[in-house]
Specification:
Layout: E1 2-6, E2 9-16, E3 21-26, E4 31-34, E5 36-39, E6 42-45, E7 48-54, E8 59-64, E9 70-73, E10 79-80, E11 83-84, E12 87-90, E13 102-113, E14 126-133, E15 143-146, E16 157-167, E17 170-176, E18 182-193
Antiparallel strand pairs: 1-2, 2-3, 3-4, 5-6, 7-8, 8-9, 10-11, 12-17, 13-16, 13-18, 14-15, 14-17
Length: about 200
């Protein structure tokens, strides 16, 4: 376990060797995240085994357990050793306060996109969305959402999905599958209850 201050934020990082997991605690936001990486098409857990900081170079380093390589930690990199860096969020299962059937009217997000290094120079930023209902871990097919062509309000609110179907409880997965800066401030769902 170690503490690091990185780009103005404070983190506490713990690696669990036996379970092959590394968690990072954002001290400022009071939020835990599991670290991982993408190997072309799927998510794998990351387990770093040692960490170091060089005050002279003002750089943070971590060694990868799997390949023994030492990496410089920086938010300016767009790939991990040739593999694109991708974002991934999974919400908890939500029932909006009741186990009754409900229908999703729309799912919205507050999203801000930055200037990124895309796979293609003419590509718009996009995210991918899927969901699992009623306690299942089987997710719906992934839907691509082009953020360059979405209807966005002045406060960066983007409608991700309309008429999202019927459920009792639901969790969402959101992927940012390309090397661009995307900040998701929150997901908001409007549902209707009753005879749905």
């Amino acid at each position: 376990a170690f503490y690091m201050s990185f780009e103005g934020k404070s983190f506490y990082v713990m690696s669990f060797v036996d379970s092959n997991k590394t968690y990072m605690y954002d001290i400022d936001l009071n939020v835990w995240s599991e670290l991982g990486y993408w190997n072309t098409s799927s998510y794998s857990r990351f387990r770093g085994i040692c960490y170091g900081h060089s005050p002279r170079w003002n750089k943070h380093f971590v060694m990868d357990h799997d390949n023994g390589k030492i990496y410089d930690i920086s938010s300016s990199y767009r790939d991990d050793n040739g593999i694109p860096i991708n974002g991934f969020i999974e919400t908890g299962s939500r029932n909006h306060g009741t186990n009754k059937w409900k229908r999703s009217k729309n799912l919205r997000a507050l999203i801000k996109t930055g200037v990124g290094k895309y796979s293609s120079p003419t590509q718009s930023p996009y995210i991918q969305l899927c969901h699992a209902d009623n306690g299942s871990n089987t997710f719906s097919p992934v839907v691509n959402i082009d953020l360059g062509n979405t209807i966005s309000t002045t406060d960066n609110e983007v409608i991700l999905m309309r008429r999202g179907g019927r459920y009792r409880s639901r969790k969402y997965r959101v992927y940012a599958p390309d090397s661009t800066d995307i900040v998701i401030f929150g997901l908001f769902e409007e549902v209707e209850y009753g005879n749905v």
